Amino acid sequence: MEVKIGVQHAPREINIESSQSAEEVEKAVADALSGASKLLSLTDEHGRKVLVPADRLAYVEIGEPATRKVGFGAAL
Fold this sequence. Notes:
Layout: E1 2-7, E2 14-17, H1 22-34, E3 39-43, E4 49-53, E5 57-62
């Protein structure tokens, strides 16, 4: 699952490929924003954790899993 996280006062967004489902990511974001947790904690597909302070979240975009393109030609 591709996840983009915007952080306040940061010039770039955080992009990760997460092995978590869209529902798990959404629940983690909701918990962080409701005050149940002070950190948004997500795990990428390599097992690394990404922690973002909940009060610094600007936006979270949850997308579809990225497909890897193979080859040099364009597929039609």
